[in-house]
C-alpha cells in the first residue's frame, strides 16, 4: 500500500490535519482495469472462458476509515473500516458486489512482538505475499496464484470474519496464523449470493479455514538486502465436492513456500529500491480444486530510473497446473482440455503524480482455459489506480 502521504488530496490540508489531530484518517481508493487478447477477434461476451477473450473491464471504489482509539485510552490500537463497490464485465472474474470490505480491531503488544487483528478482513494481503513484484497500486499482471482462494481464503473484494495473530521471532523470523470463516466452496459469485452485504458471520455451510505461516522477513537497510521467505499450510473443514467421487467431503488444503531476494541496491538513500528475484511453489488438493499446482519465477525492479523512483518494472513466468481429476472427467464427457497454463508477462507501472498509478502489461498465455482447448492468447492489460 502506498504511504498515506502519496495522495491526490494534500495530507497537509486543514481538513486532514484536523482529522489527524484526533487520530483519525480517511482515504478513498479508486481503480479501473482493461484486458483484451490481441491475437484474435473478440468472442461474444457470453462465450468467453478466460479474461481477455472478450474485452474485460473492471472498476472499483473503496472508502477507508481508520482511528487510533486514543480517545478510549487504548495505546498501539486501531480500528479499520472500509467498504467496496466492485463492477466487472464478466462476473466469474469479479464478482460484482457492493459490501463491507474490512471491519477489524488491531492491537500491538511489546514493540510489535505480538500483533493481533480480529474482525472482518481480506486475508490475501495478510498471507502468502501474492502482490510481490507489484502492489495494490500497480497490481500483479498476468496469471497469479488463485489456489489459496479456491481453498476458501478471503480476498478483495470479499471479506470474512477472521482472528489473526503474528508473533515476532528472533533475527527477523515470524510465526503467523489465522482462524478464518471460509468463503463459499463454490467461489466468489456464490459467496456474494449467500451474503450480499458481507456482514453474515457464518453463512450456511461455510466452516473454519485454518491458516499457518512461518517466515523470515529482513528489511532492506544500508548494509543488508531485503529477504522474504515464507511457507505455509491452509486446511479447510468446509465441505467441497470431490472431483473423483462426486461426494461432498471436508479436507481441502493448500501448501506453499515463496522466496524473494534483493539482488542489488543502486540508491543508498532509498534502500528498498533495486533489482529483486523471486519464486513461488503452491500446491492444492487435486481432488477438490480445478487448479492444483502453481509455479512462478519473477524478476522485478523497484525504482527503475533515478528520476523515476516509484516506478516498477517486472518480468514474470508462471505455470498453473490443471487438476487431472478435473480434466479426466471433462474428457470423459467428450470435451477438449488443456492440462495446464504457461505464461510470460512483462509489465511497467508508472507513478504518474501523487496518488496516481498506471500499469501497462503484455502477457503471452499458453493454455488460457481448462476447457475448451482454445488457442493461445497475447493479452494486453492496463490498470489505473488513484488514492485520495
Describe, in plain words, how this protein is organized in 3D.
The chain has 388 residues and is mostly beta strands. It has one domain: Porin (Beta Barrel), CATH 2.40.160.10. The strands form two sheets. Strands 1-2-3-4-5-6-7-8-9-12-13-14-15-16-17-18 form a 16-stranded antiparallel β-barrel.
List the helices and strands and how they pair.
Layout: H1 14-21, E1 24-37, E2 56-67, E3 77-88, E4 97-109, E5 114-121, H2 147-150, E6 160-168, E7 173-181, H3 188-194, E8 208-218, E9 227-236, E10 240-241, E11 248-249, E12 252-264, E13 274-284, E14 291-302, E15 312-322, H4 324-332, E16 340-353, E17 356-366, E18 377-387
Antiparallel strand pairs: 1-2, 1-18, 2-3, 3-4, 4-5, 5-6, 6-7, 7-8, 8-9, 9-12, 10-11, 12-13, 13-14, 14-15, 15-16, 16-17, 17-18
Q: What structural category do the secondary elements indicate?
A: mainly beta
Main pleated-sheet profile: 16 strands, antiparallel, barrel
Number of discrete domains = 1
Say how many strands there are. Answer: 18
Low-pLDDT sequence parts? 136-143
CATH homology superfamily: Porin
Quick rundown:
By secondary structure, the chain is mainly β. The protein contains four helices and 18 strands.
Amino acid at each position: 500500500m502506498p504511504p498515506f502521504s502519496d495522495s491526490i488530496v494534500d495530507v497537509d490540508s486543514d481538513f486532514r490535519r484536523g482529522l489527524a489531530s484526533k487520530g483519525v484518517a480517511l482515504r478513498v481508493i479508486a481503480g479501473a482495469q482493461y484486458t483484451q487478447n490481441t491475437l484474435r477477434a473478440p468472442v461474444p461476451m457470453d462465450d468467453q472462458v478466460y479474461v481477455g477473450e472478450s474485452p474485460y473491464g473492471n472498476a472499483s471504489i473503496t472508502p477507508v476509515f481508520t482511528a487510533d482509539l486514543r480517545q478510549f485510552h487504548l495505546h498501539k490500537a486501531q480500528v479499520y473500516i472500509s467498504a467496496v463497490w466492485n463492477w466487472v464485465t464478466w462476473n466469474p472474474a469479479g464478482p460484482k458486489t457492493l459490501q463491507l470490505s474490512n471491519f477489524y480491531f488491531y492491537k500491538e503488544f511489546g514493540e510489535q512482538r505480538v500483533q493481533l487483528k480480529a474482525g472482518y478482513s481480506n486475508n490475501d494481503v495478510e498471507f502468502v505475499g501474492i502482490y510481490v513484484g507489484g502492489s495494490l497500486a500497480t497490481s500483479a499482471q498476468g496469471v497469479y496464484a488463485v489456489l489459496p482462494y479456491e481453498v476458501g481464503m478471503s480476498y478483495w473484494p470479499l471479506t470474512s470474519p477472521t482472528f489473526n495473530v503474528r508473533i515476532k521471532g528472533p533475527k527477523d523470523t515470524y510465526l503467523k496464523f489465522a482462524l478464518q470463516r471460509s468463503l463459499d466452496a463454490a467461489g466468489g459469485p456464490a459467496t456474494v449470493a449467500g451474503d450480499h452485504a458481507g456482514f453474515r458471520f457464518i453463512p450456511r455451510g461455510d466452516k473454519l479455514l485454518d491458516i499457518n505461516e512461518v517466515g523470515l522477513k529482513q528489511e532492506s537497510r544500508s548494509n543488508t538486502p531485503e529477504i522474504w521467505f515464507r511457507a505455509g499450510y491452509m486446511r479447510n473443514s468446509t465441505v467441497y465436492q470431490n472431483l473423483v467421487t462426486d461426494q461432498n467431503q471436508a479436507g481441502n488444503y493448500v501448501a506453499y513456500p515463496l522466496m524473494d531476494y534483493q539482488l542489488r541496491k543502486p540508491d543508498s538513500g532509498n534502500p528498498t529500491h533495486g533489482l529483486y528475484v523471486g519464486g513461488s511453489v503452491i500446491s492444492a488438493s487435486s481432488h477438490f480444486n480445478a487448479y492444483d499446482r502453481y509455479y512462478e519465477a519473477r524478476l522485478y525492479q523497484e525504482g527503475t530510473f533515478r528520476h523515476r523512483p516509484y516506478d516498477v518494472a517486472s518480468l514474470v513466468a508462471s505455470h498453473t497446473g490443471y487438476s487431472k481429476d478435473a480434466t479426466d472427467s471433462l474428457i470423459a464427457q467428450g470435451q477438449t482440455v488443456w492440462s495446464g497454463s504457461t505464461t510470460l508477462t512483462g509489465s511497467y507501472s508508472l507513478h504518474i503524480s501523487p496518488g496516481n498509478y498506471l500499469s501497462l502489461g503484455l502477457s503471452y498465455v499458453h493454455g488460457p482455459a481448462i476447457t475448451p482447448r482454445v488457442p493461445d492468447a497475447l493479452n494486453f492489460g492496463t490498470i489505473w489506480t488513484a488514492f485520495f
